[in-house]
C-alpha cells in the first residue's frame, strides 16, 4: 500500500477463508465518496488526462490508491471548484472488496487516500476539508440460497420508496436494488456470481484467477449493501468524516435495512396463520376479513371479492403488518435476515 498512514485489517482471515465474512464490530464499509473545495489548477490537470464522462467543465481520471482503483474528478461548476473522490475502501486495503472494511478505520483510510493523491496532484484537500457524499455500509450473509432469500424479500412491498429493480439470470434472482435512487438504496446480490462476472471481463490473467478463487469461496453468500447519499447523511448529521462513527453508521444502517424491508420475516401459510393470530386482537372482524380477502387476491391473482373500502383496509393492514411477505398457499419455510448478528434465521428461529 503506497501510503504513510498505517491502515490495516484487524482480522487475519485469508481471502479464501469464510471464517469472518464481516467484521465483528457489526459495521463495515465498501464504497465511499468524498467532496471538497479545490482550485482550477486541479481541474485543468485532470482535463489534460482526458475528457470526463461527467461532461463539460469536469476533469477526471481513474487512479490507483493502495491495492485498489479510485475515480478522481473535479469541476469548475458552482461558486468554487470542487473535487470528488470515489473508491472502495475495502479494495484499497485488500485488492478486492470481499471483506468490507471496519467502520472504525474510515478516518485513517480517507486520510491515507487524500495524502497519497496530494503527492501526485495539485490542491487535493486534506481530511478536515472534505465532506461525505456517499457511503456504502455492507454485510455478508451465508444463506441456503441467495436467489430464494431475495425472492422472498421481493414479495414485500416498499413503503418509504418507489425504486425496485431486479436482475434475473437463468430464471434465478441474482440481484435486487430497492430505495429512492437519489437518497438511499438497499442492494442485495450473490457475491460469488459478481466475482465471476468481474473475472470474465478482467484482462489480467493473474487477477482473473484470484477473482475466480474468491468466487468459489463466496458461493451462496448474500451481500447486503446499504448505500446512503448526501441527503440522508445530512439528515443524520453525518457530514464530516469524524461524524461517521461506528455508532452513527450502525444507526443509519438499521434505518436503511428496515426501509428496504430486509428485516421482514418471510414464509408460507403456517407462518401467515401464526401472524394473523398475533394481530387478531388489534383488528375488528371486518378488518380481519378484509386482510384475508386481500391476501387471497394478491396470492392467486383473482379479482378482489369485495368493495373498494374493504380493499383499501386489507391493503393498509397487510402492509402495516408485513403480511405480503407470507404466502397463503405455499409451504415456504420462514426466513429472516438479522442485522445485529449478520445471519439468516430459518424455521422456528425466524419466528422468535
From TrEMBL:
It comes from the Bacteria. Residues 1-15 have a biased composition (Polar residues). This is Uncharacterized protein. One of its GO terms (biological process) is DNA replication. Residues 1-23 are annotated as: Disordered. It comes from Kineococcus aurantiacus.
